[in-house]
Amino acid sequence: MSDYRRLLGDLLKKLPVPAESNSYVVMEEVKESLYLPLDR
What we know:
It is a single chain. This protein is mainly α. It has one helix spanning 2-10. The protein has 1 helix and no strands.
């Protein structure tokens, strides 16, 4: 996480645009595949 913060601070802030950045961190995987079991 500290490397990611450094990337944002050192690299992205020096770019002329965008003035704002959003990040979403995934804490755990909810579903591994696209397979959806259909119990009939």
